[in-house]
Design brief:
InterPro entries: SpoIIGA. There is one protein chain. The protein is built from 9 helices and 11 strands. The protein is an alpha+beta fold and 320 residues long. It has 2 domains: 157 residues, no CATH class; 142 residues, Cathepsin D, subunit A, domain 1 (Beta Barrel), CATH 2.40.70. The strands form 2 sheets. A 9-stranded mixed sheet has the order 6-7-10-5-11-4-3-8-9. The longest helix has 30 residues.
Length: 320
């Protein structure tokens, strides 16, 4: 087999630089280009030494880990033992993901049934992949692996950020209670215009059996004021929540003003890991006829005033 050392050097320089850059993005670090280049240069030189220096101990597991550690230090600095461990772990995670993607894609394009038919290892521990489309396939598979890793890490980071905004909510009306998962929306500024009571949004389907027949489905397309006007005298007297219903004006996404059907609860208990539970008495619950989260992560939206309310229980306020 003919090995072109210059090609090995520049390939490793590009790969190590890309892996280090991806690690920096995953860890939200901003190292200088000179630091990244120095670390990638060290990795490329170490790869070339496999063909020039006949020193068995130079390619041992301990030395490989040491070289990787020096590359991480050159790129991101020390920053303490915990910071170093996280950077080092992220560096190897990116390496394993991209290498797995390269090997997996090479296996897909091969006609051989043996997954290791195109993989060979040198005496010093180097990896050789034999492809029909060597350079082009390597570039495509490597970039695809990086793209998949970046997308997965971004999605995981968004889920972590979402978890910090999720609360457990218990809604109490008389002797009954409903438990839902709710999202704290700092941009929610919906108030009842007369009383300035904050409005929490919740899926109407949660109270499907407690609303008048058909209201849950009709809220998807009909205005709430039309439903209220259909409450005749008999229904108003027989419906237990008639005195709790409110109409709250709001501005829709298209800019049009509409009315939202709201319910006045007795109290709402908010709880979340790391925070003491607290009750909120002064609020309304607006009913949305649709689905608030397509993934089903939450079924209600908390007004920021509720999360910032006093954690000590207070006496219920008079109905608005």
């Amino acid at each position: 087999m003919t090995v072109y050392v210059d090609l090995v050097f520049f390939t490793n320089l590009a790969v190590d630089g890309t892996v280090l850059l991806t690690t920096a993005k995953a860890r939200r670090l901003h190292p200088s280009k000179s630091r990244l280049f120095s670390a990638a240069l060290l990795g490329a030189v170490y790869a070339v030494l496999m063909f020039w220096a006949d020193i068995p101990y130079l390619y041992s597991f301990a030395v490989k880990v040491l070289i990787s550690l020096v590359m991480v230090l050159l790129s991101f600095g020390y920053g303490g033992p915990l910071q170093l461990a996280r950077n080092f772990g992220a560096f190897y995670t990116v390496n394993f993901v991209t290498l797995g993607g390269v090997i997996g894609l090479s296996y897909l394009v091969r006609s051989s049934g043996n997954p290791w038919g195109g993989v060979a290892f040198t005496q010093d521990g180097g990896l050789i992949l034999e492809w029909q489309m060597q350079l082009g396939l390597f570039i495509v598979s490597f970039l695809l692996s990086l793209w998949l890793f970046h997308g997965t890490s971004q999605g995981h980071r968004k889920l972590q950020q979402m978890d910090t905004l999720l609360w457990d909510v218990e809604i109490r009306i008389e002797d009954r209670a409903w438990n839902v998962r709710a999202l704290l929306d700092t941009g929610n500024r919906l108030y009842d215009p007369l009383t300035r009571i904050p409005v929490m949004i919740m899926e109407a389907s949660i109270w499907k059996d407690d609303l008048p027949p058909g209201w849950c489905e009709r809220l998807k397309s009909e205005s709430a004021d039309r439903l209220i006007t259909e409450l005749d005298t008999d229904l108003s007297e027989s419906y237990a929540w008639a005195h709790r219903l409110r109409l709250v004006p709001y501005r829709a996404v298209n800019g049009n003003s509409r009315l939202m059907l709201a319910v006045k609860p007795d109290t709402v208990l908010l709880s979340r890991e790391g925070h003491p539970p607290h009750q909120v008495h002064r609020l309304l619950i607006g009913l949305d006829g649709g689905v608030l989260s397509s993934e089903g992560m939450y079924r209600a939206i908390i007004h920021p005033d509720m999360a910032n309310a006093d954690s000590s229980p207070s006496a219920p306020s008079q109905p608005a």
